[in-house]
Design a protein that fits this description.
Shape: rod-shaped
Low-confidence stretches: none
Strand content: under 5%
Number of strands: 0
Mean pLDDT: 82
Radius of gyration: 24 Å
Distance between the termini: 80 Å
Oligomer: single chain
Structural class: mainly alpha
Helix content: over 70%
Length: about 60
């Protein structure tokens, strides 16, 4: 009986923990919206081009 109760409590705890991640994820996405890979690529290209203009070979 005690083993059954322990397993049930453990399962309930895991389900509660996994179920509580969704509100946290939603709150974080509202505060810091996810960036798409296309946006990251454009930012990288713009940064690299700006650094190339300052490049002067010796």
């Amino acid at each position: 009986m005690k083993n059954y109760l322990s397993k049930t409590l453990s399962l309930f705890s895991v389900l509660l923990f996994l179920g509580s991640c969704t509100p946290l994820k939603t709150a974080l996405n509202k505060k810091f919206p996810p960036v798409s890979t296309i946006d990251q690529q454009y930012t990288s290209v713009e940064k690299n081009l700006s650094e190339l203009t300052d490049f002067s070979p010796i």
